[in-house]
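@channel anyone free to eyeball this complex?
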Amino acid sequence: MSFIVEASLQLLGLLIVFIGAAAIAKLILGYKTWLDSKSDSHSLENQILDLLPQTQCAQCGHPGCAPYADSIAKGEAHNKCPPGGQALIDTLSQLLNRESMTLDETLEEDEEELIAVIREEECIGCAKCGPVCPTDAIVGANNMMHTVILQDCTGCELCLPPCPVDCIDLVPRSQYL
Ligand code: SF4
Ligand code: SF4
Ligand code: SF4
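replying in thread with the prediction:
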């Protein structure tokens, strides 16, 4: 009888050790996942991406800012973003600890950052501009006047062609600071 009790106690002990080990392993795994996610948000690609202008204009030869950020981190030259201009190149040179350079000679620096502004009194509320905006910067309902949230506009010009009454202008952002 005492043998059975002793065996049961040993079994219980083993079970407790097993559950404890599993709990510790889970904690370690969770901590590692948290560390990985933290280091990812501070990865070089993300730091570069944070500096890019986010206009998604593709002048750098990539379909958007994120793929160019990845490519810069892997060694591509960091002087191919006209909207960012020389200021961006200098900032990236510091971040990457690379020599300073000028804009790629095949590209032209953007004169001044432009944004879209709707001449609201002419807007017929057709709502054709909203769906094409990549940053959801255009607000308005069907048959109602539309307007652009200036801080969200990247000046990509995609909303201009769909407007049937041509009431969207591109103007220097500095006019609206
Ligand atoms: S040129 Fe600059 S702003 Fe345009 S997509 Fe490339 S990184 Fe983004
Ligand atoms: S230019 Fe037009 S489509 Fe492009 S971000 Fe500005 S409002 Fe949106
Ligand atoms: S496409 Fe032109 S007319 Fe139609 S809602 Fe947009 S700004 Fe107004």
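from a first look: Residues 82 and 107 are 7 Å apart (CA to CA).
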